[in-house]
């Protein structure tokens, strides 16, 4: 087997030496879709599965640079209107033609079918969709939206005919999970899906990029790290994703398996809920009720930040598979600020700040996180619990399934939580507008502001940046907003994750996508 880079649309390529692999590919993945409606969830694992069956209007390559997808070009007609020219000759899996009507339908259905991790953020600025002709649409935004094409890298196009009766919250699962509405323009057609199990796909020979190299693809959802690796070693799967840091070290001595490491977009953030009168999971040191939420005090948030030893988290907890993080996006993304310092690990200073805030003995808190979504999530959570307990904040760690965690977090059940966030658009408007802006459903902002933070000045800055057409000015505005976010500790970034893939020995050059997606279409058999 050998990996090499492919030119054109993707930086990801997997070359397989065995001729037995020439038609069938089986991949063990840590997480799979929550539904087969591509608009149900904004989680990366959901979108990764959807991209096998559905295309996006704008494509993001392996470095998250935007390229033509189902739209071949786009340009602003005026400050509040974007025109998208659509690709000619594209077919849906049922043989029908892709047209502007499908784009309009796909945009307008999203608010009705989106789940607890909302995808409405990607179309929040589309106030009206105008069909100019069968291959041209104009998106009217009401206000300048310079980054609209970046939002549309997660705009999945469904068939307006196939999904017409399955575009409400009540009917979506019935239509898509059964395959009735699972009609896309993507490289593979739906065959079957078992929730938490196998997603089976078959090649779509009329795919507009050209047919995939695999006749069938099976994506096996296997949350347990050891199980994925065992399946690889036993030959049950051809490729395994999200290899744990512990397994990665062991594999360095195993000549039968090769591994590839790549930086990830995912930043693990600690979220501290700042509602003054609601504090589930927070207690005084003796277990009694608190009079007020300590997390509203900037000194307490600063103390918690100082208690985190990010170096140890990377080198010991993650076995070197990560980097310390100081803001909500990886370096190099649009809006990342070079002026934000790396946080200091200062347990003595943390204790002093807690004493100043009126908690000289600390307090108790429950910390919740996912244990089955991203590599190392549970381990990082446990590491945080030990670090907080060391400065007097007695911490009860709860690493749970993502299917339980995210709905509960959205309901406000947790005062303290931790999860990964990936800036899937490669720029700050998405991260700041979703996580930091105060919740404003009418504007489609603050959809993931789980800490109930509100700062009118920061809100105004984010909105100004999102409407600024001059790229240099927009970058400066977002950098300022990112600095304000870091200073207020709206989010407390911990580490930037790295991802590991493993396959049979013989791999040469494998360049993974920075978003960590493993897309079967770009996995090629060897000569």
State the fourth-level CATH superfamily of the largest domain: Periplasmic binding protein-like II
Shape: globular
* Estimated structural class: alpha+beta
- The CATH topology annotation of the largest domain reads as D-Maltodextrin-Binding Protein, domain 2
Question: What is the level-2 CATH architecture name of the largest domain?
Answer: 3-Layer(aba) Sandwich
Low-confidence sequence ranges: 1-21
Note the main sheet.
12 strands, mixed
Task: Using the CA coordinates, give the radius of gyration.
Answer: 23 Å
Description:
The chain is of the alpha+beta class and 527 residues long. It folds into 2 domains: 19-241 and 506-522, 3-Layer(aba) Sandwich (D-Maltodextrin-Binding Protein, domain 2), CATH 3.40.190; 264-498, Dipeptide-binding Protein, Domain 3 (Dipeptide-binding Protein, domain 3, Roll), CATH 3.10.105. It has 14 helices and 18 strands. The strands form 3 sheets. Strands 1, 8, 9, 10, 11, 12, 13, 14, 15, 16, 17 and 18 form a 12-stranded mixed β-sheet that branches. A 4-stranded antiparallel β-sheet has the order 4-5-7-6, with helices on one face. A hairpin with a 2-residue loop joins β6 (128-133) and β7 (136-140). α12 (428-436) runs antiparallel to α13 and α13 (456-467) runs antiparallel to α14. The longest helix has 18 residues, at 471-488. The chain starts with 23 loop residues before the first strand and ends in a 23-residue tail after the last strand.
